[in-house]
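Encode chain A's predicted structure.
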Amino acid sequence: MAFTAFSSSTAVVEPVARRKSPIALFLLLPGIFYLILFFVTPLISLVITSLQEPDPVIFGQFQNAFNWQNYVVVLETYWQQAIRSAGYAALATLFALLIGFPLAYFIGITLRPYPLLQALALVLVIAPFFISFLLRTLAWKQIFSTEGPVSGILSSLGVLGPGEAITGTAFSVIFGLTYNFIPFMTLPIYATLERFDLRLIEAGNDLYGSPATTFRTVTLPLSAAGVMSGTLLTFIPAAGDYINASREFLGSADTTMIGNVIETNFLVLQNFPAAAALSLVLMAFILILVSLYVKRSGTEELL
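Encoded structure for chain A:
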């Protein structure tokens, strides 16, 4: 009976005393070295670069200084792109959740009695990773192009007027972000639902709960950890993405995101202090937003 789901033993488990072992500390050394080499060192270099000022003698060169005004300048200049990036990333995360949760539920719970079909469906979710991120985005650019099938159908229906196109719009950029990051949302939710005890759903039905009530009061709260992880894994890379919003792919000058601005300042304008300041502002913005989100959702252990 489903109520046996609540009959688990409540025996108190004594906490195991933890002892500091020199072997454990030694095993941590490669990880610590990796973090110092590939995270701490570039971060310090980024901070130093963001405070540099133009060299008064050599044009195009910068010298070390404490020019904190770089942060003020980039915030005043690129605040629209920053807001646009947050908006696009939030919408893409929302759409990925609306698509990814039912998909993960179908694979993790509906297909659980059929292991072969479950494994096949899981492979289909992972399959896009076998193709380059750039190639997938270029494929959608061809599909959404003026000569493509989607534009042809919408033009024949009168949805698109003469001279109008799908690419280069906010829709195409948000669509690309959603499509490319759906697996990042689906897989953590699937990992949670795959271990979900189905007797809890049976218990909800035995207590005369409607499917919607059982989902809202049982399934959704118990899968919250997967939703939180998927949301973070989707929002963070989407906010800094510069591929989908690029003019060479699905974007235009009107859809520029903060990642495109950083790329232009680094590689085209070679304004390294501005690009470094923007990168740190983006990191701080995401860190604050994610901290508030995790604290609000009550999953501080994810930090």
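The beta strands are 53-54, 62-63.
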